[in-house]
Automatic annotation (TrEMBL):
It comes from Daphnia magna. Pfam families: VOMI. PANTHER family: VITELLINE MEMBRANE OUTER LAYER 1 HOMOLOG A-RELATED, VITELLINE MEMBRANE OUTER LAYER PROTEIN I-RELATED. It comes from the Eukaryota. InterPro entries: VOMI (IPR005515), VOMI_sf (IPR036706). Transmembrane segments: none annotated. This is Vitelline membrane outer layer protein 1. SUPFAM superfamilies: Vitelline membrane outer protein-I (VMO-I). The lineage of its organism: Eukaryota, Metazoa, Ecdysozoa, Arthropoda, Crustacea.
Amino acid sequence: MLTSFSCWFVEPSARLVCTILISLSNSGNNIQSATMKNVVGYLALFVFIGLANGQEVITVTNGETDGRWGPLETCPSGSRAISYQTQNEIDAPVVDDSAMNTLVLFCDDPLQTNLTSTPGYTGNWQNVQNCPFGAYMKSFQLRVSPAGNMTDNTAVNNIRFMCSNDRDISGIGNREGYWGEYSAECPEGICGLETRVRPDGGLLVDNTALNDVRFTCCAAAEF
Ligand SMILES: *[C@@H]1O[C@H](CO)[C@@H](O)[C@H](O)[C@H]1NC(C)=O
Ligand SMILES: *[C@@H]1O[C@H](CO)[C@@H](O)[C@H](O)[C@H]1NC(C)=O
């Protein structure tokens, strides 16, 4: 008898977890009851259905929560992310600095496909940062100004990636805030991007632009 079926998202891996509880009734005839005694009251089946074709999602814990998650964008099949570029409002001499606005990842397919999920709305494009030749991006770290005790919140200020040859790459970002811990690693590299951006709220809002990012790992079968 199926008594319960439920699904929920479990952070930080953002996996969809479904639990099916099958209740084995003790009622019924004697043969059934004897069988049931060998089974502990309930049998719980945990079915893990990963999002995006079973791929892991890597996250960090110091992102901020303004705005909404944008769409998942992924590299073309068989390619993965090897470089990135950011758009930052660098220490703007204005009251309301939004710091890092946009993150762009570049895939290693022939067209050098780029991923942005949700673009920001202001700032200057910084230099492209590349993993050394032959290496790919596998984990990341964010520098974030935590919300709350600042008159000018900026959320994400900078990002740094670890490449598959254990060399890190980073560019010029905003200097405020603190570096958090590195994310888990994608063994076969990063293949998907989602960004959480607070849209421009105008002059009456403490704008923060980019608040958080998360990446989908590549499928091992494709490499
Ligand atoms: C990303 O690709 C699009 C389409 O090819 C292009 O218009 C855009 O300039 C690219 N962005 C960056 C930052 O290179
Ligand atoms: C602001 O918050 C951070 C982290 O929560 C803390 O380390 C820092 O000391 C705080 N700054 C002030 C001025 O309270």
